[in-house]
């Protein structure tokens, strides 16, 4: 490790980034070395993405320096950064699916000759690039016709085609099948052998440990730890990510569960992407009043589809869903809400909130009937209901008339939860309720759910963070390929849960 | 977080000239138009002229108010001009008498019946639009463009392309009184204007004070979220097209009565004027934003501007240039007002969203 400083290609020194009054990065120091994989660990909202945006030129730091090859640099745009050899591959693919592989790789920097674009030359270079990365795919294949994993590799090829020396990968495996992850890791090894520095971000801790050489952990905008692969393990990462003594609560006790409210019998839901396949495949589950059930599983295990089928959004392909022993059949979402089923969807922005509404109108949207006086919406009643809800779910806002976009992620999530609570649900389904919210809000959300369960609410929440299973849940259900692969009590260990989900346990 | 939200509240309280200019732009534009034209022509700002101009405005405004609902839903209705013409022709056709061959009699429906049937036809056109858009997921632009042609074609077919000139009815047949719509006045105010005001009040009430109105704003703002909150988004969608169709039919009746003739080509390109009124009134074509007051102002801006240009003797060609420019400026100002805010379905990270960025490292 004597010459480690010679290897540093990119360095962030005391980088601070503030948005409005919020400090997203509080003086982060960070190095990237040639030919190695540096993994950034951190919870949602820890500042990983902000840091990567600064390194790749999407955003400029409020203060602090970026040092490239020993010289301070300022990136004004992503093009600026790309020209100096830094490319970022975003979580959401940025390919044009209607164009060919060749067109995508050369998008924005087409090779032109006297007769317009020199397609032959582009195809030749594409073929050369793909020879290593993705043999068998022709340059004129449409990106549409490729699998997501292959598309991911096309993105990487595009980054490499501009001679990137530093490649930032933001959650590159989130949409990949296990076999594709292996291929990606093979490519990462090839790239580092060629001297490319890679910054890797992933929520799959075990997976990330497999490829990483250096680990850096961020928490709340500060770097809490960094070390070499040989010195770290899963425990070390988790401890540094969440802090030593963070507690998400424990299952509420001291009361008896009521009768079974929700019964799922042999449920089948077709995969919306591929109607040949059942994404929920013959699943049965009973939930009692007052019980908190956690659904754990990898992406694609069927959690979202299961919850949305119960809420009435997805059509079911077989089996039945019973509420108090009565089959729900073709009841619409509105009818199910009236019967007492409420869903807090996974994607808050897309499915949870109306961005053109303020906090109050978002809160009352699902229970407008309560604000009616003689068939007319009463502003006063509505405002009072909204204020009560703000108090119940502890939204931090000066009043219901604030635009919803002015709240933090955690408070927005509380608004969505409040909206569902306002419908007086008996079964509350929450799809990844902790996604993208800070750890304090996470604790508050869980505390709120525990309180409601004590009053008889049946709670089913899904998560992809194993630590969240071992919090308030009385029962942990592990899903794997649309079926229940294991069921645990609150005394399960992380290793047991992960093993049942099909995740490899590295530590 | 607390700091950002209080900052917003303070910002709200702060009196800002730019904000007033932007938010009151349609109103200011109307004042400007009235001032400029009264300076240029002494006949412009007279009571009679205002009433005449207002009855022109009423046609655009009634179409525009129906259009507003569709636009709030995130759609567009290109068929309203044709529906206007069709409704006029239906009324004219009914007043000529409907021969019932089996009984060998000719039925002359009374005026209320004529009005109801014409409106029902407008509603039916809207229903087809609504079903196409909501059930069969046809893009609103395409579905209503198709209906624009179909309905216009039907109107031309019914009269063989000719205009029905006799709408006065016959005392003996009990179907007189159609002219009342276009000519009569109550308290000196033309009936058309009164109907416009009534429709504005009713729709304003529906939008602001009923569940349906809230549902409409919600499904226009974020249809997926609205659906998951139990809003019957399909039903809302069908209804807005039906209401738009009824508004177009009413406008058609008023126009036919004013002109004392029912032309199958009446209302050609009026759909564009209606859209312009909605846009000038500050509604967002993405849905979810807009109100009755704005659309009314938008219709007045267009009507007072084009009539003013006629009064001061500007050529018809220049009129088009002016009105076009006003529309473009209105849209530019709309994007100033709404553009910086984030739209729901876009995947832009919240960091660049607004001045009050809530969630710095927001990663999903």
Give a structural overview.
The complex is a heterodimer of chains A (507) and B (364). Helices cover 32% and strands 28% of the residues of chain A. Chain A has 17 helices and 24 strands. In chain A, the strands form six sheets. A six-stranded mixed β-sheet of chain A has the order 6-9-10-3-11-12, with helices on both faces. Chain A has three domains: 8-242, Rossmann fold (3-Layer(aba) Sandwich), CATH 3.40.50.300; 247-340 and 425-507, Rossmann fold; 350-424, no CATH class. Chain B has 364 residues and is mainly α. Chain B has a two-stranded antiparallel sheet. In chain B, strands 3-4 form a two-stranded antiparallel sheet. The longest helix of chain B is centred in the C-terminal third of the chain and has 27 residues, at 233-259. Chain B is globular and about 70 Å long. The two termini of chain B are 19 Å apart. The model of chain B is unreliable at 1-14 and 341-364 (pLDDT under 50). Chains A and B meet through strand 2, helix 1, helix 10, helix 11 and strand 20 of A and helix 1, helix 10 and helix 11 of B.
CATH homologous superfamily grouping of the largest domain in chain A:
P-loop containing nucleotide triphosphate hydrolases
Query: What assembly state would you assign to the polypeptide chains in this entry?
Result: heterodimer
Give the radius of gyration of chain A.
25 Å
- Are there runs of chain B of 5+ residues with pLDDT below 50, and where? 1-14, 341-364
CATH architectural group of the largest domain in chain A: 3-Layer(aba) Sandwich
Q: CATH top level of the largest domain in chain A?
A: Alpha Beta
Q: Average pLDDT value of chain B?
A: 83
Average pLDDT figure of chain A: 84
Taking strands numbered 1, 2, ... along the chain, how are they ordered across the largest sheet of chain B?
A: 1-2
The most extensive contact between chains is:
A-B, 63 and 53 residues
Count of DSSP H/I helices of chain A: 17
SSE class of chain A = alpha/beta
């Amino acid at each position: 490790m004597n010459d480690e400083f010679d290897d540093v290609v990119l360095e962030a020194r005391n980088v601070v980034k503030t948005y409005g009054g919020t400090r997203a990065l509080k003086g982060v120091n960070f190095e990237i070395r040639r030919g190695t994989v540096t993994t950034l660990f951190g919870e949602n909202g820890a500042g990983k993405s902000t840091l990567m945006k600064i390194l790749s030129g999407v955003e400029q730091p409020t203060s602090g320096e970026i040092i490239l090859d020993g010289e301070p640099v300022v990136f004004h745009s992503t093009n600026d950064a790309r020209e100096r050899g830094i490319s970022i591959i975003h979580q959401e693919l940025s390919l044009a699916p209607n164009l060919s592989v060749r067109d995508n790789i050369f998008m924005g920097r087409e090779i032109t000759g006297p007769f317009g674009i020199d397609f032959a030359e582009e195809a030749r270079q594409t073929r050369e690039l793909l020879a290593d990365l993705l043999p068998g795919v022709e340059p004129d294949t449409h990106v549409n016709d490729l699998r997501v994993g292959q598309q991911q590799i096309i993105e990487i090829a595009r980054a490499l085609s501009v001679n990137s020396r530093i490649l930032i990968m933001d959650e590159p495996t989130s949409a990949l099948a296990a076999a594709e992850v292996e291929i990606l890791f093979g490519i990462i090894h090839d790239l580092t052998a060629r001297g490319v520095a890679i910054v890797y971000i992933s929520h799959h801790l075990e997976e990330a440990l497999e490829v990483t050489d250096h680990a850096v952990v961020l928490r709340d905008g500060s770097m809490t730890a960094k070390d070499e692969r040989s010195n770290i393990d899963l425990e070390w990462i988790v401890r540094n990510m969440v802090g030593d003594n963070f507690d998400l609560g424990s299952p509420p006790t001291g009361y008896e569960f009521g009768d079974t409210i929700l019964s799922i019998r042999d449920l089948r839901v077709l995969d919306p992407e591929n109607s040949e396949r059942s994404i929920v495949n013959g699943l049965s589950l009973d939930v009692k009043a007052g019980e908190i059930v956690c659904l754990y599983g990898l992406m694609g295990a069927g959690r979202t589809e299961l919850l949305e089928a119960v809420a009435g959004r997805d059509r079911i392909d077989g089996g039945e869903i019973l509420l108090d022993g009565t089959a729900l059949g073709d009841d619409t979402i509105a009818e199910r809400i009236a019967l007492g089923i409420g869903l807090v969807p996974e994607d808050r922005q897309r499915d949870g909130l109306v961005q053109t509404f303020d906090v109050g109108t978002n809160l009352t949207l699902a229970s407008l009937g309560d604000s009616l006086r003689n068939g007319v919406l009463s502003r006063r009643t509505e405002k009072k209901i909204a204020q009560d809800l703000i108090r119940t779910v502890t939204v931090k806002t000066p009043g219901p008339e604030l635009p919803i976009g002015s709240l933090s992620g955690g408070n927005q999530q509380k608004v969505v939860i409040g909206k569902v609570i306002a419908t007086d649900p008996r079964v509350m389904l929450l799809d990844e309720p902790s996604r993208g919210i800070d750890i304090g809000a996470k604790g508050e959300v869980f505390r709120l759910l525990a309180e409601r369960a004590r009053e008889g609410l049946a709670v089913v929440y899904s998560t992809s963070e194993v630590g969240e299973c071992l919090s308030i849940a009385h029962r942990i259900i592990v899903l794997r390929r649309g079926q229940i692969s294991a069921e645990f009590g609150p005394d399960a260990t992380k290793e047991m849960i992960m093993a049942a989900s099909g995740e490899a346990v590295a530590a | 977080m607390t700091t950002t939200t209080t900052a917003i509240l303070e910002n709200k309280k702060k009196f800002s000239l730019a904000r007033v200019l932007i938010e009151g732009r349609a109103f200011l534009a109307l004042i400007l138009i009235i001032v400029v034209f009264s300076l240029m022509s002494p006949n412009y700002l007279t009571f009679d002229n205002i009433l005449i101009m207002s009855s022109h405005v009423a046609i655009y405004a009634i179409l525009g108010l129906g259009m507003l609902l569709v636009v709030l839903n995130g759609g567009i209705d290109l068929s309203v001009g044709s529906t206007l013409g069709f409704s006029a022709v239906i009324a004219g056709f009914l007043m000529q008498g409907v021969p019932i061959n089996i009984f060998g009699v000719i039925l002359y429906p009374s005026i209320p019946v004529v009005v109801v049937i014409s409106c029902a036809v407008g509603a039916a056109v809207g229903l087809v639009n609504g079903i196409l858009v909501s059930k069969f997921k046809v893009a609103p632009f395409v579905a209503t463009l198709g209906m624009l042609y179909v309905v216009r074609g039907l109107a031309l077919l019914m009269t063989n392309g000719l205009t029905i000139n006799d709408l006065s009815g016959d005392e003996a047949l009990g179907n007189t009184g159609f002219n009342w719509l276009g000519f009569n006045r109550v308290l000196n105010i033309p009936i058309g204007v009164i109907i416009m005001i009534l429709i504005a009040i009713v729709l304003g009430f529906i939008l602001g004070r009923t569940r349906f109105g809230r549902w409409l704003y919600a499904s226009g703002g974020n249809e997926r979220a609205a659906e998951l909150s139990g809003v019957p988004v399909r039903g809302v969608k069908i209804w807005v097209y039906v209401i738009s169709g009824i508004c177009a039919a009413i406008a058609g009746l008023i126009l036919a009565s004013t002109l004392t003739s029912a032309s199958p080509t009446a209302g050609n390109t009026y759909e564009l004027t209606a859209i312009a009124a909605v846009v000038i009134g500050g509604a967002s074509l993405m849905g979810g934003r807009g109100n009755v007051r704005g659309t009314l102002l938008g219709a007045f801006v267009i009507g007072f501007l084009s009539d003013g240009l006629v009064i001061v003797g500007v050529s018809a060609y220049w009129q088009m240039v002016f009105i076009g420019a006003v529309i473009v400026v209105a849209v530019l100002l709309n994007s100033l007002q709404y553009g910086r805010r984030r739209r729901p379905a876009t995947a832009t990270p919240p960091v660049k969203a607004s001045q009050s960025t809530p969630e710095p490292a927001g990663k999903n």
